[in-house]
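Can't paste images in this forum, so I'm doing it all in text. The chain is below; anyone willing to post the predicted structure tokens underneath?
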Amino acid sequence: QPFAENSKLPETSEKAIYEPSNSPQMAAPDQPANADLQKFLAALKVADIVKDKDELFTISSTSTVEETLKLLEKKRILSMPVVDEKKKKYAGIVSISDIVIAICFNPCFAKLAKGGTIDDLTREDMEKIISRSVLKNAVIDLVGVTEEGKNLWTFDENDNMLKLAEYFSQGVHRALIMRESGGPCLLSQTDYARFLCNEVKKSKDKNIEDRLKMSLEKLGFTGQKGPIISVNDKETALAGFRRLLQWHSFRDWNLAAMPVIDSKSGKIIGNLSESDLRGLNENRLLDLLFVVPMYLKTFYGQMKKPLIASPETSFGDALDKLVESKVHRLWIVDKNEKPIGAFSLSDVISQFTVFGFAHEKS
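Text version of the structure:
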């Protein structure tokens, strides 16, 4: 098993496996913590989430980027450990974020970096894009492209959920959970948030009930400084994916997705996320040069309607929408359906840690 204790990485490696006790400390805001909400999480064990979870999905370090995308799509996941099969050791984590960067910022797209569509390309341009893409490269080349890919936080199944929440609420997307039986498993921020959503809805605790009644506006999710980062329906998918990564921020604005905006009315009409790159292959590489609506239609048959809510929507109703729709986020819109904020699964987690209170309005 690549994650056995005797398979830790060489001392010269830039990658690291962090345990909570020795991992880098993340700064918390100075707002007081809500002890009752934290007590709710502290009473739950990580084992409650992972007891029925499958063992790790891994991929060989010699597999290609294209093969990795295919497996991510098949398993409906966003990341997986990369294993050096010769050494029988963990080599790192590769995520969809790493792949988006490698593909969309590849020099082969340089001619279109500042705009342009597939109509602007000559046959020679197209041949260069395909021949120079990273899709045929070994996936090990992409390990560590993003900072999170260099590290893996480890927890024990007997740890309480509050301990894990403080990492997930700050942008960490996955953690390795060591189990007494069944082998280790990878727990994602999404797994955690969905479990929490269901537990919260069952709770009879008055503090929890009061929190569920609060509006998204009261909780501070409509106070985004400046315009919402977005892509319009006249821009290419390549431009959208590049913007996702250019504006990516670990704490302030985690751009795993952005709204697709009608260029005339400013209304939200869709959603573009990193996961929309899963399943891309050499034959479809040039689809990145389609305008966003067309790109999404080639993958899904249609551009799915975005999940939206108003500022007055309660925390509880927003939770219901996320769980029932099985999506990672909803967009908060004004009366004209123009986006003014976002509410994501990581925001759900943050409401039960000290970090959630940095958003609240007085």
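The chain has twelve helices and 13 strands. Residues 1-33, 248-254, 355-362 have pLDDT under 50 and may be disordered.
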